[in-house]
Amino acid sequence: MEKHSAKSGSFIGRHRWLANLEGHRASFSPRIHQKSPVVPESEEDDDDDIIESMPDVDHDQILADIDVFIDELANVDDKGSSPELPDVIETFAIIIKSKTKKSLARNAGHDMVDEDMFLHESIKRLRKLKNALADFNDDGSSIDMINKLMQQAMVFIEEELRALLLDNSKAHLEPKLKAHPEPKLKAMSSKHFSFKQQERCPVPEPSTDDDYPGFSDEKISRLNIIVTTMISSGYKNECSNVYSMARGNALYEQLKRLDFEKLNAEDVQKLNWDWLESDVCKWIRIIKHCSHFLIPTEQTLGETIFSEDRAIFRSLFKNLVRSLITSLLDYAGAIAMTKRSAERLFKFLDMYEALHGLSESMCISDDSDSGETKEEQWSNDLSTEISSVTERIGEGAVTIFGDLENSIRNDVAKTPVPGGAVHPLTRYVLNYVKYACEYGDTLEQIFQQNAKLNQIPSPEEIDMEKSPLAAQIMSVMSVLDGNLSVKSTLYKDPSLRYIFLMNNGRYILQKVKSSNEIKKLMGDNWCRRRSSEVRQYHKSYQRETWARLLQCITQEGIQINGKVNKQVLKERFKNFNAMFDEIHKTQSSWVVSDEQLLSELRASVSAIVIPAYRSFVGRYKHHFEGGKSMDKYIKYQAEDIEAFIETLFEGNPAASMSRKRF
């Protein structure tokens, strides 16, 4: 290729173009909130007249000529003096200026036209031309001219970027999220305990007509071209500011749709839990919406738009997410500082899971080209802040669970539960534990991370090598057993005491067996020991009640010198009748609510009483036959006794005792 000569366009032409550019160039500001000046279409100048007088200008040819000139500059050996610019540069500058003014005068967000593409291609040439001229010993006038021209073109580019981003955001201001019913509350309480079992807060799902972020493929392509052009031209800060402001506003509008503005960390300490609970659920939905939808969607959008500059986008995205979740983390931190109570455990666990999901969502993309791990893509301070709040929520959950044992110990009752029924405390604790075990994986993780806050397991639990959660649950069960044992002493009747222990023991066992989560934690050995304890209570009850009754119809002492002592026999029947009447009267009002236990209990009583009574009556009945006193002493048939046994433990006062006659 021939070396470029010093010949160029006329000095007068270049001077006229520079003067015209200086007089009409638009001021450029990197501040994203400042509007760039728009030149009215009615404004005319000499350059417009010139471009109008050149109807046959071939834009592609001009760009090609510029490329040739740039190549020629690269082949110039003597770079000691500044080269003269050819006439095509003057024409090129006039076209850029005119098209920039026309583009700015159009409505924001207009459809892409050839003129806009020409401007983007022109900026590339200006950048190359500037780099080529920088190698020459120039007085700076040529480069200054190119800088001014590029700055004017960037006014349009920046405004176009802002218009495309903001125009799309306006389409997503109306709420379109699927409505979710408020979680149902189920109250479980005892005299000293109460909490509301609440369904987990659902993840808000966008409705089918919500296409957030709503950018068409064409718009994304345009945004990609604009972003790539601005960054490659040295306008990274301006591009970043416009993008961050626009997308930050779009994300904030999304949060407003979930009542984000109603959450105020400063109000947390002023409100009671009944008021806070609904706000906490709202917070959980917002965090889950960010984790499952907003953050992944926003990341995918940005990585597509900044496909040529992923590192720049990662920095922008960190700041976007930080601005999105900082106030949410402040709210969670305020909740972690509230007074701890049993009913708050499950909201704390929901919050912990939501924060854990948030951490995972921020590492969904692994850019292998960046040389960074997923965690390294996020600034340490943001990760530390999320981890800190998560740990505080976890510590709160551990403390609440630990306080459950203290609450059980402190539940001192002075009045026994009527009829030896299952104590409300037992129902509360087992329902509480069952619901807590639905968060088994979360609680395991929390207890492992906060082992120092847990109570030290007993030697038995250590030998069993249980998980931290299993050891904690077993400790709760042990404390509950101790409390129930103390409560059983409120019953003066030993038989009723064993009915109480049997009822509560059976309830605990059935609750554990009915929950796969609890049963897995407690283990088969624990279930077998519990079954053995319930059977022992059963035997103790039989011994205290029915073994004493059977002493009335024993054979011992009835015969004297081989003959039946009728007076002793009469006393035996009288004592049996009186004791059985008292048992029936008393124990009919006792309660055994477990149907299987009730059936087993009645069957076992009948199995030991009926055969013995039938045998005794059959052996000695003839001593009363023919006399008027038979009904007085042999008051019940065996069938009567069996029928009365079937009315025990129903929690009702004894009904009239009708009987069959001989």
From TrEMBL:
Keywords: Exocytosis, Protein transport, Transport. Gene3D superfamilies: Exocyst complex component Exo70 (1.20.1280.170). It comes from the Eukaryota. GO terms for cellular component: exocyst. GO terms for biological process: exocytosis; protein transport. GO terms for molecular function: phosphatidylinositol-4,5-bisphosphate binding. SUPFAM superfamilies: Cullin repeat-like (SSF74788). The keyword Protein transport applies. Component of the exocyst complex. This is Exocyst subunit Exo70 family protein.
